[in-house]
Amino acid sequence: MSAIVGLVEAWRQTFHASLVLAGELSPAELARQTGCPLWTVEDIYTHLVDAETGVLADPVAGPPPGTVGGLDPARPLVDRMREVYMLRSDQMAGLTASAEDAEPTETQQACDRRLRMRVLDCWVHEQDIRVAVGRPGNLESPAGRMVHVMFRESLPHTIAGRSGAREGSRIRFEVGGPLPFASDILVGAGGRGRQVDVDPVVDPDASIGTDGITFVQLCSGRTLSGSAHLRLGGDVELARRVTTAIAVTP
Length: 250
Fold this sequence. Notes:
Shape: globular
Largest sheet: 5 strands, mixed
CATH topology of the largest domain: Four Helix Bundle (Hemerythrin (Met), subunit A)
CATH architecture of the largest domain: Up-down Bundle
Strand content: 5-15%
Mean pLDDT: 89
Helix content: 40-55%
Order of helices and strands: HHHHHHEEEEHEH
Low-confidence stretches: none
């Protein structure tokens, strides 16, 4: 199966989940501050609509007829979300059809990269909303699994390059929840790192233990929620620097 097909399904699921949730929220919940600095829940929904509307007018993605120019900002939020969901789904139907070609084209590869970023953005913002309104969920969705892999794979680079850990340091991550993992990050020369299995007989220089949603918040550069679970061990100052260094989204 083409990568684009899986990405399309991941986007559809997470965007639709946010759409359904929007219809359940009260005005007070829409006004709540999120862990995304300076943005309320409603601000995030507006961003999601605006971002997808921009893609509809993207010549690389190929807009469905009559959609260039954006959606009416005066329409209610849920209506705008529902409309953009339907338009983008139609647009993506064309992407999945072209993905059946045996040899990926440059345009398909560009769509793949952009769609991957839209899945990341939509799912991380879905979690921003869920944390703010106290309605956790959708962590094990296709988008959630994809983003967790992206965040885990970024750890060697961010820790070795940004945390100030000295060469030879071993940083341990133990993340629980629906998508658990445990791994050690070894810091090498020149700001390079690599991820290895946990060695139970070797004590790490610093350790970070947390749950899945807090791990997402850290990798997203969010202000941690009051319910965040974070256990720091070993060199606690280094562990704190690591929790800041691993943010990979603005």
